[in-house]
Amino acid sequence: MVSTKEGRFVSNMKQDQLKLAVMERHRQTGHIGLGIVKGFQISDGAMASTVAHDSHNIVTVGTNDEDMLLAVRTLEQMQGGLVVVKNGKIAASLALQISGLMASMPTEKVLQSLQELHHALDLIGSQNTFNPFVALSFLSLPVIPALKLTTSGLFDVSRFEHISIQ
Known about the structure:
The protein is α+β, with helices and mostly antiparallel strands. The chain has 3 helices and 11 strands, in the order ββββββαββααβββ. It has helices at residues 65-78, 107-123, 132-138, and strands spanning 4-5, 8-9, 17-23, 32-38, 46-49, 58-62, 81-86, 89-95, 147-150, 153-156, 161-162. The strands form 3 sheets. It has a 6-stranded antiparallel beta sheet, with helices on both faces. The two termini are 12 Å apart.
């Protein structure tokens, strides 16, 4: 069972049910897939990435729309990368300007930014049992079972078809 308000899903941190969105970023189609994800254990805030196999669209997960939107807009400004947002503020980011996958800065700066990102993940309540950016990168990969979120919606890989979330 999921929480709703006026017929719309509302994140429920006690049940670890968060908002998930995948946004097309290459052809300006405006396509956005929306879903619900469990397992990130974020208590307050959002994270987003352009490292999202295989299409490398923008993928974001969070507790509220405002932080998710700020994360997405930050990725657009950085021309791709990784970002963590809490309470309407950027907690940490790493710009990946080369196709949204690679940094054009020195290794030491990348390492420092990654350390800041991991600290920011702690701030939003993410657990250290796995790397949430790695997990996020595979949620939109529709070639490995079982359910994935694409820019066209929820996709059942086993049945090879989109399914309704209503």
